[in-house]
Amino acid sequence: MSADPTPTGCGCPEGNLLTSAATVADGGLSRRGVLRGALLGGTALTVGSAVVTAAPIAAAATQSAPWTLVVLSMRGAADGLSLVVPHGDPVYYSARPRVAIPKDRLLVADAMFGLHPALAPLQSMWQQGKLAAVHAAGLPAPNRSHFAAIEAVEDAAPGSSTRSGWLNRLLGTDAYTSPLQGVAVGTSPFALAAGAQPSLTVASVNAVRVAGASAVSTSDPRIASLARAWDADDLMGRGLRTAVTAVADYGAVRAAKDTTSSYPATSLGRALALVSRSIRADVGSSVVTVDHGNWDMHTDLGTVAGGWMTNQAGQFAAAVSAFFADLGSWASRVTLVTVSEFGRRTVENADHGLDHGWGSVMFLAGAGVNGGRYYGRWPGLTATGDADLPVTTDYRSVLAEVIGTRTSASLATVFPGFTPQAVGVMRR
């Protein structure tokens, strides 16, 4: 994939709003995300074109992260039935006479499932046991509103008075609070910024800077002036110190080798190149979020020969494959998991597309993944016009398994009031 071929519109007014809201500053910073972070995380300070969400507590010195979780959000509601095709369910082909993927084109097929052929760059990871898929996963109840579903997925605390993102709660279980422990790369930072822990939202490696300052130290007149103006031990004062610490520590990322040329020339490729650079710089980043959109394919989804779905799946696969190849030995500490706000309906519509549905698929790749297999309980498809793929695996059960095997975090803190079910997708 040499360029982003994704259409900008989707035929869904809310989806168009979602797309336009995510392209505000330097490649994808959401006003809604920054505002939410400012209100819930304490305060949001702009440094260059990056945003540091400052915590109510002072940031400690950066420490090496023993693990890194990369959460890749497939914005717009990815169709799990196209990405992981249930060829063994006869309803799939009758419900999608024009957009179904032929069985003989599927990759790594078993008796029920096979991967979309555009995912070929990931086939070797599957065969090496480093990639897996969980089907019929998602929110415990249907929610066809992009914004409402995204917020529900990223809060992950239905019925709770806790107003924070599950990723920010995960950061709070670490023993250190570096402002670089949580990084949102070119994304809307809802789940990271909403909460007590500091985080950084950045779109490019050169975006983290203090305007007009030649160096990030009190020897620089600009930094010294800011330090004098905000030396109080209050939220703004601690916030400024957090931001300056983030800028200083981020210098190690700029100094790390730039490997962008080894990635596809797409927005996801550039984002994952920056994620790899941050991990290899060892600046303490333990949770990283990346967005990949637009999956809101109401019209012209395309066929196996080409089109929107094939291009989008190909972008995803090429970028993730390049990411793990680029990490090298650092891959032993990195686990990547995908989420999407919901899936698409079973039956194709009159516009060669798919409308908002319920269940979708989650991919897991990298460290600790019990790969080369499809997971989840298959509920079977029905072919009525408004039929959804039911959710049989709560997405929090998948995330809980990742957190429980890769971190020392308290699941009761990260997912309050939730009792996960065993999925088996992570090695214990």
From TrEMBL:
InterPro entries: DUF1501, TAT_signal. This is DUF1501 domain-containing protein. The lineage of its organism: Bacteria, Bacillati, Actinomycetota, Actinomycetes, Propionibacteriales.
